[in-house]
Amino acid sequence: MFPDFSQTLSKDRHFLQSAFKNPNKYGGLSKVEEKYRKSHEIFLKRLAALPKPEFDNTLPVHEKLDEIKKAIAENQVTIICGETGSGKTTQLPKICLELGRGAAGLIGHTQPRRLAARSVAERIAEELKSEIGSAVGYKVRFTDHTSRDACIKLMTDGILLAETQTDRYLATYDTIIIDEAHERSLNIDFLLGYLKQLLPRRPDLKVIITSATIDAERFSQHFNGAPVLEVSGRTYPVEILYRPLTSKDEDDAEVELTDVIVDAADELAGHGEGDILVFLPGEREIREAAEALRKSTLRRNDEILPLFARLSHAEQHKIFHPSGAKRRIVLATNVAETSLTVPGIKYVIDTGLARVKRYSARAKVEQLHVEKISQAAARQRSGRCGRVSAGVCIRLFSEEDFNNRPEFTDPEIVRSNLAAVILRMASLNLGDVAAFPFLEMPDSRYINDGFQVLLELGAVNEHNGLTRLGEQMAHLPIDPKIARILLAAKKHDCMAEILVIASALSIQDPRERPLEARDAAAKAHERFTDKQSDFLAYLNIWDSFQRERDKGLSNKQLVQWCRQYFLSHLRMREWRELHHQLAQTAIEMGLTTKEATFRRPPTQEQLKPSESQGDQDLSAKLKQKQLDKKQHRAQIHAAKEAGYEQIHRALLTGLITNVGMKSPDGNDYTGARGSRFHLFPASALFKAKPKWVMAAELMETTRLYARDVAVIQPEWIEQEAPHLVRYHYYEPHWEQKRGEVVASERVTLYGLTVLPRRPVSYGKVAPEEAREIFIRGALVAQESNLQTAFFAHNKKLIKEITELEHKSRKQDVLVDDEALFAFYNERLPELVWKDAKGGIWGSEEGGQNQSDKMADQNGQANQRNAGRVVQAAHADSNDADNREREPSSHTLQNVSDDPKPKKQPTSQKGRLKPLPLADIRTFEAWLKTTERDNPRLLFLSRDDLMQHAAAHITEEQFPKFWQTADGKFKLSYRFEPHHPLDGVTMTVPLTVLNRLHAPSLEWLVPGMLREKIQLLIKALPKQIRRICVPVPDFITKFLESNPDRQAAIIPQLAHFIAKSAGDMRILEQIDQDAWAAQELPEHCYLNLRIIDDGGQELAGGRKLHELQQQLGQAAAVTFRDNTQEFERDNVTTWDIGTLPESIKFARGKQQLTGYLGLQKEKDGRIALRLFDTSAAAEQAHRLGVIELMKLQLKEQVKDLNKGIQGFTQAAMLLKHINADTLRDDLTQAVCDRAFIGEDELPRNEKAFKEQIKRARSRLPAVKEALSRYLQETAAAYAELNGKLGKHPLTQLMRQRLQTLLAAGFATRTPWAQWPRLPIYLKAMTLRLEKYSSNPARDAAREADIQELEQMWQEKTDSLIKQGLPISDGLAGFRWMIEELRVSLFAQELKTPYPVSVKRLNKEFLLLNQGN
Questions:
Q1: Is 412 exposed, middle or buried (0-12, 13-18, 19+ CB in 10 A)?
Q2: Do residues 183 and 177 lie in contact, with contact meaning Cβ atoms separated by under 8 Å?
Q3: N or C: the chain end with fewer CB closer than 10 Å?
Q4: Could you read off the pLDDT of 865-877 as tens digits, one per residue?
C-alpha cells in the first residue's frame, strides 16, 4: 500500500509516486519514506498556517458561496461567470483557502496587467489582515514579493507562462485561477491550451477560470464540459445612458468627442457627488480631453488625472490613494477596463473606442488602430462604477450601435504574431502548433507567418525544426527578435552594449513625458540624444544613470535625479533588473563572461599636450594645440564609428525586416515587402532623414511609423542576413576590359533593393550561358585582346571577306554569326578542368591522365595536393543560395522561382576542379594545353567563312583609292543600310576640300555605278522608262558611249535616252531638275570624310556643297599653311614679277596645286595670296588688280570720287539707297569697266602697265556714259514712283524696283544692261497706264513671266545648293526675262532681240541641257 500523497507538497508528489514504485532506484525505501515524511510535515504546517478568511456577505459572490465551494471541490476545472463588481477577483482565493487549497502548493492567481496584480494582492492581503508578501504575495516581471510561507501568489499571466520553462508541470501550485479570461490575451490562450494538456498529468491541480463577461460555453467545451457557475447582480445598480455623437463629418469627430466628454461630465456632475472615470483610446486623446476639461468653466475646480500603462508610480499613487475633497475625473485607456478598481468611481463615460493592437500577416507590421469595442468590453467598462453607490454610465454611442457590435473582443491569438509562442512550444516539445489545443485555433496564415519570422531569425530551419540558435533563443525570457540580437552581440563583441539596449527594448520607455511639462521633458531628454541612432540614446541614459550611482548617491537622490531629467525611477529599476537577469542568463549560456557583461560608462579621455611643446614659441604652441585637438577628435570619431557598426550590425540581425531606404521624394521610406513608413516624430533622426535606417518596430496608427531608428549601411544587410537576401542577375554581357563574362547583380531583401548594381563574374552563376556569351563576345564578335595565332589569323581573314561583302553590297558572302558560333561551340568544351598544378584541361579524362602521370612522378606529395583540390572543388560547387537570374538575350530558358542556381558538376574522382569557360585567362590556359595536340584547332579557313565565291569583286570595279589631279584618296566600303557610313567613303584632307568637283563625285566607283543609274532610270516616268528596256543592256550601252565623268550624270543620261529613241524632243519631256531632286538611297552618293593634317575627322557627309560651306574658309586657310614663300603682303606696285597660272607644291606626301592672285585685304591693303581653286584666285585677282591700278591712277580716282555728273540729283531720287553707298558702288562700277572691262587680267608687269594706259584713255568715256545712264535711270524712276500711289500694281512694282535698283545694283548690273535700265523702268510706267484697260490680260502675262522666273530661280538655287557654278547663259537669262516684260507690257519701246514666252522656254531648255 502506498501512502496518501494528497497530504504532501504538490511539487514532491510526482517524485514520491515514482520513488515508492521503485525505491531502490532512489537509495532505498527508508530514504523515500524520509522524503515523504518531510513533505508531509511541511504540508501539515502550511495547512495549519493557512489564513482564516471571513466573508461579510456584502458581495453578490457570497450568495453562491456554498455552490462555488462544492463545484471547486468536486471538479478539476470550474468556470465562474459573473458581472463586474460581483467580488469574484478577491473572494475566489479566499474561498480556495477555506477549502484547504494553498497548503500543498500556492494558489496561483493571474491578472492580465502588472498594475492589477499589485492592487489585487494588496486588497486580498488587507481582507486577510496580512502583510503583503507573507500570506499573500505577488510577482511582477522582476519584482517578487512572495515569501516561502505564502499561500496566495498574484502574478501576470506572462509570469506563469515563463515559469513553464523551469516548472513544466507547474508543481509549485495546487490551484490556478485565470482571472479576466475574457480578455483572451495571447498568454491566456496559450496557458489554457497548456493547462488542458497538463491536467491529465496533474489530477491534483485545480483550475478556476473567471471573468465578468465571458463566453462560458466555449470555455466549458474546451475543458470537456467543465461546470459553469454564474454570479449575477452587483452591489449597486448602474444606469446606462446613450449620448451618441451627432457629427457626420469625420474630420470633426475627434474635436467634437472632447466637447461631448465635457458635456457628459457636466451632466454626471448634476447627478451628485462622485468621481468620474472616462475611457479613451490612447494617450493623445487623454491629453486633448484633459485640456478641454481644464478649460471648461464648470470643471475648472475638478482634479483631472490621466491613467495609462506608462504612468509613473507617483502619478499612479494619486489615483489609487485619493486624498482631496475635489471631484476627480480619471481619464484612462482600457488599462482600467478589467480587474483594476479605481476607488471612489461612481460615474463612467465610455467613448466606445479603444486602440487595439493587431498584427498584419500580410504587411508584417504591428497595427495600432482605434476601433470600436465589443459588447463585452462595454459591459466591463460600465461595471467600473456603482461600487460605492448607484452608478451612471454614459455611452457616447447609440444603443443601436451597441447592439450591432460583436459580442466579444477578438482574442489576441488571432491578431498577434505567434513567433514567441511557436518558439516556446518548440522548446517545450509541445508538438505541432496546428495540433495544440488552443481555445480558438489561430489562422494558418498567422502560424505560417510565425514560422517565417523564426526562419528569418535563424531559429528554425526550412522544415520548421528548432535550430541550435533557436534553442539558445528559447532560453532568453524576451521577444525572439531581441533574443536574436543578444546572440549576435557575441559575434560582434558588443555584449555589454547590447544587453543594455535589449533590456531597454523589452520594457516601457523610461523617459517620461508628463502632459503638463512636455516641452521641459523634451529639453531634458536632449542630453541623451544621439544624432545617428535612437538606440544609442538608451546607452546614454544608462551611462548617465550609472555615473550618478557610482557617485554614491542615496536612493532618494537618484529619484531626484530621475525627476530632474524626466526619467521613471521605477522603470529604471525595472530596466536594471531585466538587464541583470539577461546578463546572468547570457553568462550561464556561455555567451559572455562576467567581466565583459556589465557596461561601465566611458571615461572622458583628457587631451594630452604634445611632448615637444616646451621648446616651441607661442605661435607654434598654438598651432600644435590645434593639431592635437584635431587628432584627438579624429581618434574619438574613429573609435565611435567602430563601436557604432558593431552595435548596429548586432541589432540588425533581429530587426532585419525593419529596414528602409528613403524614397526619392524624401517624405517617407520604402521597406521590405513593399511597405512604406515614416519616421516617428519623436525620433532624433526625424528631421535629418538619412538614406538608410533600421527601426526597432514598425507600428501602424494613423500611418505606418518606425520607432527607435538608427542609420545603417545597406552592405550590413547582406552581411548579417545572407539567408534572406536574394541575388538577381541581369544584363549578362562580355566585358572586353575585364576579359570575362560579367553580369550586374542586384541584392534585394523581400523586394527592397539593398544593392542596386554591382558587376560579378557570371561564370559561377550560370556557366552554360556564360560560355555562350564568351564565345559570341570574345571569339565571334572579336571583342577581346587575345594575343594568339589563331585569333590574329581569323580576324584578318574575316576582315578580308567582310570587305568583299561590303563592296558587293550583298550579305551572303560571309557566313553569319551563328555559323561562327557553331564552329567555336563544337571545338570548345562545356567545362574545363583544373588540376592540382594549375593546368587547364578540356575534359576530365585528359586532366585525370595528366594528374595520374604527375602522381606517378610526385607520389604522396601529389596526393596531398589532390586532397586539397577536392576540398576546393567542394567549396566552389556549393554555390550560395538565394540567387536568381533574369532572362537575357543569350538564353531562352525561363528563370525558375527556385533561388538556387545550377551547381557546377564536381569530379567523381575529386582530383580535378571544374571551371566555367567564361574568361580570357581560363581560355588561354585551356588553349595552351589543347594546342599541344592540335595546334590549328581554332583556325578558320576561307571555306569556313565564305558562302559562295566573289570573283566579280575586282580592284578595277572597287578601287582602293580615288584618283584626282591632287593625288589619290583612300576609299572604304561598308554594307550596312541606314548606317551613316553605308556605301563608299572617301577620306579627303581638308586642304583639297574646295578643289573637289561635285559632278565627278556623282560617278561613284564602277562597281556601284550601274545600280545608281538603274535607280535613276526607275525614277523616270513610265513612258520614258520604256525607252530604256532592257535596262541592264541600256546601261551597258550608255557606259560604253564614254560619257564625260567630269560632268553631271543626269544631263548626259537624258541626252542619251533621247538619242536612243531617235527623237530629241524627248528632252523637253524630261524635267531634269525634278529628276535630280529625286532622293536615291544613301549609298548611291559618295560619302566624304574630311580630316585634318593629323588624321582627325572634322566633318562628314554626302553633300559636297554643305561641307564646302561649313569648312570652305577653313580649307582655304589650311591650304595656305606653310606657303609663305609664294605670298607677299602690302603690294603697292607691280614688283612681283610674272604670276604663273598655277603652282605645284608638296604637303607631306601629297602633291598640291595652288593658284596665285592679288587680293584686297580687310584693311584695304593689297597682298599676293595662294588660292586653292582657280575660280577663287580669278575673282580675287580681278578685284586686287583694280585696287592696285587705283594706286597708280590716284589723281583720276580722286577726281572720280568727287562725283559723277548728275549724282546729287540721282541720289535724291534714289533715296532708298544711302548716298555714300551709292557713290562707292558707282565708283567701283566705273573702275571695273574702265580698268578691266572685257580685257584679260594682267599677270606680269608689262601687261599691267599696258592695262594702266588703256584705263587712262577709257576712264573719261566710261564715266560720261555711266553718268548719262544714271541720270536717265533716275528720271525714269522718278516718273514711275510718282504714278505708283494706290495703284493695284503698286506692290508688284515696288518688288521689281527692289530687284533692279537695290543697294549695290551698279556693280551687279552688267555693263551691257546699263542702257536698258531706264527702258525697264519706262516699261513699268507704261504698264501702269495700260492696266485699267485690261487687268485680266495683264494678270495672265504676269503669270507667264512668274513661271519663267520661278524656273530660273529654282535652277539657280539648285546649282548653288550643289556647289556648281552658274553659267553666263543662265545669268543672262534673267535679263531676257526683263526684255520679255518690255515686249509684253510696253511693246512700243522695242527690244534689242526677239523675245516671247515660247522662245524663252526653248532657251531655258537648251540652258538646262547644257548645265
A1: buried
A2: no
A3: N
A4: 333 333 333 333 3
Q: Which residues pair with 694 in a beta bridge?
A: 659, 710
Rounded to whole angstroms, the Cα distance separating 1084 from 599 reads 86
Closest among 499, 578, 498, 504 to 141, alpha carbons compared: 578
Closest CA to 570 of 482, 511, 506: 511
CB atoms within 10 A of CB 874: 12
| CB within 8 Å of 610: residues ≥ 6 apart | 624, 625, 627, 628
Cell numbers of 1284, please? 505708283
Contact of 701 with 709, CB cutoff 8 Å = no
CB atoms < 10 A from the CB of 1102, how many?
Answer: 17
Task: Kindly list the distances between the CA atom of residue 144 and the CA atoms of 132, 152, 556, in Å, as whole numbers in the listed order.
Answer: 11, 13, 22
Contact 1230, 1263 (CB under 8 A): yes
3-state helix, strand, coil in the chain (%, to 5): 50, 15, 35
Residues 540, 562: Cα–Cα separation, whole Å: 14
Name residue 1141's amino acid: E
Low-confidence ranges of the chain (pLDDT < 70): 1, 84-85, 141-142, 212-214, 233-235, 246-255, 309-317, 324, 338-340, 361-364, 602-617, 628-642, 836-911, 949-952, 1362-1363, 1409-1411
> Which cell numbers hold the place of 448?
505560417
Q: Which candidate, 353, 344, 338, places its Cα nearest to that of 276?
A: 344
In whole angstroms, give the CA distance from residue 764 to residue 903: 8
Dihedral, CA atoms, 626, 632, 634, 635, nearest 10 degrees? 160
Phi-psi region of 27 (alpha: psi -120 to 50; beta: other; left: phi over 0): left
What is the reported pLDDT for 418?
Answer: 84
Question: How far apart, in whole angstroms, are the C-alpha atoms of residue 848 and residue 908?
Answer: 11
Q: What is the pLDDT of residue 860?
A: 41
Interatomic CA distance for residues 1160 and 402, integer angstroms: 108
Cell numbers representing residue 918 in the block: 567564361
Residue 527 φ/ψ, nearest 5 degrees: -65, -20
Closest of 503, 474, 502 to residue 488, by C-alpha:
502
**Phi/psi of residue 360, each to 5°?**
-95, 110
Classify residue 1358 as exposed, middle or buried by CB count within 10 Å of its CB (0-12, 13-18, 19+).
middle
**Cα–Cα distance, 120 to 114 (Å, whole number):** 10
Q: Which of 412, 356, 392, 407 is nearest to 278 (CA)?
A: 392
Grid cell digits, residue 558: 537618484
State pLDDT tens for residues 264-288: 999 998 888 889 999 998 888 888 8
Closest residue by Cα to residue 501 from 312, 644, 364: 644
Q: CA-CA distances (angstroms) from residue 836 to 830, 858, 865, 868, 913?
A: 20, 12, 6, 8, 8
Question: Taking the CB of residue 663, how many other CB atoms lie within 10 A of it?
Answer: 12
Cell representation of residue 1256 = 587712262
Per DSSP (E only), the strands in 1285-1365 are none
Q: Helices (H) and strands (E) in the chain — how many of each?
A: 51, 36
Look up residue 573 and give its three cell numbers: 529599476
8 Å CB contact between 1377 and 1370: no
How many CB atoms within 10 Å of residue 402?
20
Q: How far, rounded to the nearest angstrom, does the alpha carbon of residue 601 sit from its chain's CA centroid?
A: 42
How does DSSP classify residue 533? B
Report the pLDDT value the prediction gives residue 844, as an integer from 0 to 100: 57
Rounded distance between C-alpha atoms, residue 1390 and residue 1376, angstroms:
13
Which of 185, 184, 190 has its CA nearest to residue 162? 190
Buried b (16+ CB within 10 A) or exposed e, 629-638: eeeeeeeeee
CA distance 1013 to 1018: 9
Q: Which of 555, 405, 578 is nearest to 508 (CA)?
A: 578
